[in-house]
Design a protein that fits this description.
The chain is α/β, with parallel strands linked by helices. Helices cover 28% and strands 16% of the residues.
């Protein structure tokens, strides 16, 4: 099975000590985001966890702890965008993140790390031309350290509109113009563009619109086969064909405080939650509560042990 860490928060950036403690103790407690007293206990044993998925804007705090992750397959998304501190106030400088991306790739391999250049939006500062220039600079640095670049255009979630009221949707014409340019640049640097939840409008120009975390991508990352139950091979979001796994993160806990974030409702709530973080707790935020109802997740390995070579 897959344990996912990155759809609700950025664990490598802010909670790496906690995560390594969870690996050491072999389990984690995760609250249901809609019914907080319903708690799921996930085993983190390599006997049942085949792959751990990460999505981060700052892998640096985890890089000196990677030995603890060596029993697991891994897939990392590292987000690197052109935006400044007015948009991403707590994201490290881009050059630093690129350097850390390269270091990470050298540890886990280029098949196990993908670049996310998203969300894409247009303003007077971040024009189509500026995106093209910045994207090419980044792609040139990342050549050979990944073969995949995921893009998406900004979705106007209610949280996003509230925290970033001046943002506007990107027109289809601009999506195609910019998408075509990014596809061409990515090809120069041996990368495939994979649009995330964008339908297939860029497929005609060379994008792979089949998903950014599919079975084949995961198998390539671990250089092995996965026997995934058919019930798990399904779209988990509209227009998404990815196999996302079970997420152990929590909303309203990401300290990057990006204006476009869909996972943070309110910066004040985020900061209050982060104050309740205890690296020694089995919960990401806080501890057990009297009304908690804990159940153990049903977990099984998807590794195909009959095959030992991956071609």
């Amino acid at each position: 099975m897959i344990i996912q860490t990155g759809m609700r928060t950025d664990i490598p950036a802010f909670y790496s000590e906690w995560f390594i403690n969870r690996i050491s103790e072999g389990f984690v407690y995760t609250r249901n985001p809609y019914y907080p007293n319903q708690v799921t206990k996930y085993s983190l044993s390599p006997d049942v966890v085949d792959i751990i998925g990460f999505c981060t804007k700052n892998p640096s705090p985890m890089l000196d702890r990677m030995e603890a992750l060596s029993p697991y397959g891994q897939y990392w998304f590292v987000t690197i965008t052109p935006y400044g501190k007015e948009i991403e106030p707590n994201v490290p400088p881009k050059e630093k993140v690129i350097d850390d991306f390269i270091r990470l790739s050298k540890i886990v391999g280029a098949d196990s790390v993908g670049w996310r250049y998203d969300p894409i939006f247009l303003t007077e500062t971040y024009t189509i031309e500026q995106h093209i220039r910045d994207f090419e600079k980044m792609a040139k640095r990342l050549q050979g350290y990944t073969h995949s670049c995921v893009i998406s255009f900004i979705d106007l979630y209610e949280k996003t509109k509230r925290n970033f009221p001046q943002i506007r949707a990107t027109s289809q014409s601009d999506r195609i113009t910019l998408g075509k340019a990014l596809i061409e640049i990515a090809g120069k640097y041996d990368m495939t563009i994979r649009p995330c939840c964008e339908g297939d409008e860029l497929a005609a120009y060379g994008a792979d619109c089949g998903g950014c975390l599919t079975q084949s991508i995961l198998e390539q990352a671990i250089h092995g086969r996965l026997d995934i139950p058919k019930s798990k091979i399904k779209s988990q979001r509209s227009q998404c064909n990815c196999i996302l796994g079970r997420d152990i993160g929590r909303y309203n806990t990401c300290g990057h405080l990006c204006k476009y974030c869909y996972a943070n409702a309110d910066n004040g709530l985020v900061l209050e939650n982060m104050k309740q973080h205890d690296p020694k707790s089995p919960f990401l935020i806080g501890h057990s509560m009297p009304d908690d109802v804990v159940h153990a997740a049903q977990q099984e390995s998807w590794a195909d042990n009959q095959l030992t070579l991956f071609c």
